[in-house]
């Protein structure tokens, strides 16, 4: 059966919506159909600045997008504190939901959204783009190779960028009433997801936040980190920050191999990406050197990861619409596990860096 | 004044002594002069297997090496528990000391050695080879560049290798009576030194060991990690292990830049080495990509890092011998700071992962 073209409505004119709108245009099974903002003028300006088709429906409210019967799915880049309201309403209006991260302020809020999606039979996916890069699948193959990689023992991840003064003053991501998790929710989300991904989504038993998180005047986190511990002895650490140079690392070390990547969230280039895989590495005893050397793996892509994300989402939506399939629960599960760990890290910070159990 | 050729005596036939003997041969101001082992036969076999000059003095005890008036300096690759005895005796015999790491079981023991070296006017240096690679100086320049790198905020280091069953059963490095610090002293030493190096040797205020160190049956650490915290908000983490694939990372993140290296202890190749420097990195908003990209810096060397270490040590010894200079205290200071942090990490592990103050 030919795939349906999924008609997207965009809720709001966030900066990230520019990138995802381009991705919807690039995705072969998706189309920009409607945009709603709190004013028609703003929505109209955004649509024309970002090359939306002339036929795009321009609405002066988010409700109007949800009330349009021809909108199949909504992309929700609103501030986190507004997610419950708009995702629940979208689900009730039978719109499938592609939700920007961090998905929620806490897992209780997320569960309200997931229950609404579930009971209304709509697909849910969060906007973690790198999950959809074919490099990610190739790296997963390596981590799952019990010969070359062996068994995972430690993971380290960093995601940071240096926010400019305007961001630190005005961005929704540093406002306690909009994105109360600050850097932990924004950049820390990716670190936690990376760590869970590396473990094949085993929840840690315990997290212990690092001392010395940095806050803004309103008490929102600008920089923090944590250790994570699994029952089987695996350990992970991460560091996330709005205050240092752009850095996007995953280091995963196994009994037989190691994976290194320095651009996991946003690849250095759009059309190809690489990772380093070390397997059975040794060093020579007498003469300085390694044998064998780590190998570099290059993955070429036709579409950027954000378009692949949209394509995957629309494909799932198409199955629900066209075949009456059940929504794919995998993506909701990954969002929920990520949120559970974020919540535990936040709790550890709030409790003076106590060990906090992660309860699935 | 022409540099003197420093005549080395080697105490013992440890595996690492093969590499350092080659380094002494390669170093232009150093010569292999004597070797002592607990048996003449063993010393003789080692000398011929490793291409010592035919004139090398072969001794059946360590004392005999120290009693040879023509030995200028000794290289001490003995098990850590023997360091105090032999380093103090060597210093009393006016021999300069190149000491394999970990230098001591604790800073109290190290101080006995450093005091002996000081009061006898002999040079002390530990055998941390990578400190002497010209790449290390180039990386230091980058970290000190307040424009390109900015101010250091976080550091992560790993040193691990997968020990084979024979090592795990028989190596001195897993024996409580010989190298009681296990992986912390052996591979953790490098991580702690790397972190201190990155901070320009500022001692952390506090360390908190990671949960879940792995021990052998005798209670010696095979794998562990720690977080380190500085007064000014810098944070570091490290992970060291005998149980996973060879991994040698330093990741240093500053306000304006980031440094990555994956072969800091032993470069991938003997004749050249590289590091990655990111400065003022940004990612493009609409199209996937970074601008600017990190840059790769390649440093070519004539001599391997271990020969450069020997050359530097012999040069200092030559100054003491030839010019009556005072021994250079820098190297003792770096050893002592590294040991202080190791001791604090060990104390944190022993106290159930409590925060432990590092008192210089």
UniProtKB/TrEMBL annotation, chains A, B:
Alphabetical list of InterPro entries matching this protein: Gfo/Idh/MocA-like_OxRdtase_N, GFO_IDH_MocA-like_dom, NAD(P)-bd_dom_sf
GO MF terms here are:
nucleotide binding
What is any Pfam family matched here?
Answer: GFO_IDH_MocA_C3
Gene3D superfamilies reported in the protein's UniProt record: Dihydrodipicolinate Reductase, domain 2 (3.30.360.10), NAD(P)-binding Rossmann-like Domain (3.40.50.720)
Span of domain Gfo/Idh/MocA-like oxidoreductase N-terminal: 6-125
Transmembrane segment boundaries:
none
Q: Which residues form the GFO/IDH/MocA-like oxidoreductase domain?
A: 145-259
Annotated family: Belongs to the Gfo/Idh/MocA family.
The name this protein carries in UniProt is: Gfo/Idh/MocA-like oxidoreductase N-terminal domain-containing protein
Please spell out the taxonomic lineage of the organism that makes this protein: Eukaryota, Viridiplantae, Streptophyta, Embryophyta, Tracheophyta
């Amino acid at each position: 059966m030919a795939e349906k073209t999924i008609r997207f409505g965009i809720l709001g004119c966030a900066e990230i919506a520019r990138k995802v709108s381009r991705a919807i245009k690039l995705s072969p099974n998706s189309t920009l159909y409607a945009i709603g903002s709190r004013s028609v003028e703003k929505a109209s300006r955004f649509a024309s600045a970002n090359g939306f088709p002339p036929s795009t429906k321009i609405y002066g409210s988010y409700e109007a997008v949800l009330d349009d019967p021809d909108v199949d799915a909504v992309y929700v880049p609103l501030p986190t504190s507004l997610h419950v309201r708009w995702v629940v309403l979208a689900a009730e209006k039978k719109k499938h939901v592609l939700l920007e991260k961090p998905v929620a302020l806490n897992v209780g809020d997320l569960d309200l959204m997931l229950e609404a999606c579930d009971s209304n039979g709509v697909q849910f996916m969060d906007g973690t783009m790198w999950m959809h890069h074919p490099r990610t699948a190739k790296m997963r193959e390596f981590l799952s190779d019990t010969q070359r990689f062996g068994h995972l023992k430690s993971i380290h991840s960093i995601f940071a960028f240096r926010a400019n003064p305007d961001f630190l003053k005005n961005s929704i991501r540093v406002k306690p009433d909009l994105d109360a998790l600050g850097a932990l929710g924004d950049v820390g989300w990716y670190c936690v997801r990376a760590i869970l991904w590396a473990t094949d989504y085993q929840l840690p038993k315990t997290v212990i936040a690092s001392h010395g998180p940095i806050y803004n005047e309103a008490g929102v986190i600008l920089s923090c980190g944590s250790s994570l511990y699994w029952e089987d002895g695996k350990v992970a650490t991460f560091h996330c920050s709005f205050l240092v140079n752009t850095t996007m690392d995953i280091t995963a070390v196994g009994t037989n191999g190691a994976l290194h990547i320095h651009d996991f969230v946003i690849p250095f280039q759009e059309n190809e990406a690489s990772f380093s895989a070390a397997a059975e590495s040794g060093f020579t005893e007498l003469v300085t050197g390694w044998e064998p050397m780590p190998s570099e793996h290059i993955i070429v892509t036709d579409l950027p990861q954000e378009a692949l994300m949209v394509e995957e989402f629309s494909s799932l939506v198409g199955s629900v619409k066209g075949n009456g399939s059940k929504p794919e629960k995998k993506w909701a599960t990954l969002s929920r596990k990520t949120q559970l760990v974020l919540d535990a890290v936040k709790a550890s910070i709030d409790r003076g860096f106590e060990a906090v159990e992660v309860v699935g």
